[in-house]
Amino acid sequence: MDLDMKKYAKLASLGAMAVAGGCAALFALIAWGSTPTPTGGIDGVHATIAYIGAGIPIAAIIAVHVAYSRQLAAYAREHASEHASEHASEHATGDATGDATGDP
């Protein structure tokens, strides 16, 4: 079984962006949870350490997923125009597989 990446490149690109968005939401949740309060809990110094400690790896994950998403989107655009021209030529000549004559 050969997986054709051309079909799924755009979906994979959107998935990578969704992971980046999910990581940003996770950081927002961590930042909200580690916000200092006047009645007790975490203090300002430890909150800053928590922001940095969570922010650096999450920022790296977001950066990698955005870069990968951009590469996949470029690949999808490149091969979508290639696929459209192949489909148009097959349609014009009637050489598409599974045409009305029943020939493969």
Distance between the first and last residues' Cα: 19 Å
The main pleated sheet reads as: none
**On the 0-100 scale, what is the average pLDDT?**
83
**Fraction of residues in β-strands:** under 5%
Shape: rod-shaped
Provide structural commentary.
With 104 residues, this protein is mostly helical. It has a domain at 42-75. The chain is 76% helix and 0% strand. The chain has two helices and no strands. α1 (5-33) packs antiparallel against α2 (44-93). The longest helix has 50 residues, at 44-93. The protein is rod-shaped and about 75 Å long. The model has no long low-confidence stretch (mean pLDDT 83).
Structural descriptors:
104 residues; 2 helices; mainly alpha; rod-shaped
Would you kindly provide a brief summary of this structure?
By secondary structure, the protein is mainly alpha-helical. The chain has a domain at 42-75.
Task: Compile the SSE list and pairings.
Blueprint lengths: L4 H29 L10 H50 L11
